[in-house]
Design goal:
By secondary structure, the chain is an alpha/beta fold. Helix content is about 30%, strand content about 25%. The protein folds into three domains: about 5-150 and about 275-340, FAD/NAD(P)-binding domain (3-Layer(bba) Sandwich); about 165-275, FAD/NAD(P)-binding domain (3-Layer(bba) Sandwich), CATH 3.50.50; about 350-460, FAD/NAD-linked reductase, C-terminal dimerisation domain (Enolase-like, domain 1, 2-Layer Sandwich). It binds flavin-adenine dinucleotide.
């Protein structure tokens, strides 16, 4: 006999666990099936959180070992690296947060069904439990929130040792002498930054003629200059045609993307970071009457319903940027729609942040988007070099760039490179959500001395009236 619920959520990543909690808050009897031994999905276990823990720790290491504190009168003895302790601290952050989600499930009476879910029919889920048993669950509403997996290239097999994905790059047992990263997206650049700070020589190979595809090109170019200055070798317009794992190293064959002579590069570890693919293989979607599109995603309507009544999908498994906060917001809205409320996500205002130093953050349209859509726009820019707090702290790299509609002045996009970019972008997202003009931002009082004054000055610059430039 199947156990009956109002809602079954498959997957307990940021999309699934948030949807389950919100549904339970709204009075729905909710089960969440998760096969991993801990809750929180990719994000908490092998994504956002462990990568940010290592970015933070490696930044502290570089700051101290690199002698950067001397300027502030702080003298240190010999600084050493205890990689095991650093990895342990990262694991403790992950454990604390995943346990926290478990506590929230208990508090909200969401039942965590530990096992792997498969559709039996449109309303029935067969679970192979982690203890080796079988269980059947039934519900009128089912949310698919199974997230995504590491993608590779057709000619490369990950062995988890010398040729690795992001998960292994979060737990390398020693600092590789030479780390070669395939892919110049944000995950590769964040993890490349971690290991460079800890002592690796890092080479990034990118197929396109620029890193950070999709990001405003001016920002991507500026960041490329910065990361090269930090010592990372960036080779754009190059394709990897083969990787051979040998006993003591990997041999990577690369050639120009447009064709040309190939060359070989030796590396101790190769990190394949070419994107992620939606995770649906194990679900037996056909039994639910569902299919995936050419990129493996589940097709949804604006309210997150699929074409099969009662089946919904959110997060990395559907269209849009593969980001935790996008998955969370979709989880909230989807649960509300199922409960009969109106849940909406404004997909035009999803910020994205790369947590390197400096950080790179964006929301809304890039200049390239606006040109392609033939929208006339004004640009306001302000460098952190002219921001008093950034100057005082000695972190003057980067700038704020605001793109506003030429006619209405409505803010269409904000792009920031700077040590605080990930925090500052929230103001831009809020402004855009409320349909603010650049003048609205410019007339808002910003605390002094803060990096946020650069956002105000960039807004003033849209009308050529920045004060500190
Ligand atoms: P997931 O988090 O992938 O969760 C899906 C869950 O479903 C998994 O736990 C999986 O075990 C489970 N599952 C799958 N199939 C089944 C099944 N059949 N039965 C039961 N359970 C199943 N995003 C950001 O916004 N900020 C960042 O800083 C950031 N950093 C990242 C760093 C790295 C290294 C990586 C890899 C990703 C990062 N991301 C970041 C992306 C982010 O992790 C994802 O966008 C987010 O986790 C997607 O959430 P989700 O709920 O859709 O799916």
């Amino acid at each position: 006999m199947a156990d009956e619920f109002d809602l079954i959520v498959i997957g307990a990543g940021p999309g699934g666990y948030v949807a389950a909690i919100r549904a339970a808050q709204l009075g729905l009897k909710t089960a969440c099936v998760e096969k991993r031994g801990t809750l929180g999905g990719t994000c908490l276990n092998v994504g956002c959180i462990p990568s940010k823990a290592l970015l933070h720790a490696s930044e502290l290491y570089e700051e101290t070992a690199g002698g950067h504190l001397k300027k502030w009168g702080i003298g240190l003895g010999k600084v050493s690296l205890d990689l095991d302790a650093m990895l342990k601290a990262k694991d403790e952050s992950v454990a604390g947060l995943t346990k926290g989600v478990e506590g929230l499930f208990k508090k909200n009476k969401v039942e965590w069904v530990k096992g792997s879910a498969q559709f039996k029919d449109k309303q029935t889920i067969a679970v192979s439990t982690n203890e080796g048993g079988k269980r059947e669950l039934k519900a009128k509403n089912i949310i698919i929130a199974t997230g995504s997996d590491i993608a590779s290239l057709p000619n490369i097999t990950l062995d988890g040792d010398r040729i690795i994905g992001s998960t292994e790059a979060l737990s390398l047992p020693s600092v590789p002498k030479h780390l070669l990263v395939i892919g110049g997206g944000y995950i590769g650049l964040e993890l490349g930054s971690v290991w460079r700070r800890l002592g690796s020589e890092v080479t990034v190979i990118e197929y396109m003629d620029r890193i950070l595809p999709g990001m405003d090109q001016e920002l991507a170019k500026a960041f490329e200059r910065i990361i090269k200055k930090q010592g990372v070798t960036i080779r754009t317009g190059m394709k990897v045609t083969g990787v051979e794992a040998l006993k003591t190293k990997a041999k990577v064959t690369v050639e120009p993307a447009k064709g040309g002579e190939s060359e070989q590069i030796d590396a101790d570890v190769v990190l394949v970071s070419v994107g992620r693919k939606p995770h649906t293989d194990s679900l037996d979607l056909k039994k639910a009457g569902l299919e995936t599109d050419e990129r493996g995603r589940i097709d949804i309507n604006d309210d997150f319903s699929t074409h099969v009544p009662g089946i919904w999908a959110i997060g990395d498994v559907v269209k849009g940027p593969m980001l935790a906060h996008k998955a969370e917001d979709e989880g909230l809205a989807c649960a509300e729609n199922i409960a009969g409320l109106t849940g909406i996500v404004n997909h035009d205002v999803i910020p994205s942040v790369m947590y390197t130093m400096p950080e790179v953050a964006s929301v809304g349209k890039s200049e390239e988007d606006l040109k392609a859509a033939d929208i006339a726009y004004s640009v306001g820019k302000f460098p952190f070099m002219a921001n008093s707090r950034a100057k005082t702290n000695g972190d003057t790299e980067g700038f704020v760039k605001i793109l506003a509609d030429k006619e209405t002045d409505r803010v269409l996009g904000v792009h920031i490179i700077g040590s605080m970019a990930g925090t500052l972008i929230a103001e831009a997202a809020l402004a855009m959500e409320f349909g603010a003009s650049s003048e609205d931002i410019a007339l808002t009082c910003h605390a002094h001395p803060t990096h946020s004054e650069a956002v105000k000055e960039a807004a003033l610059a849209v009308h050529q009236r920045a004060i500190h430039m």
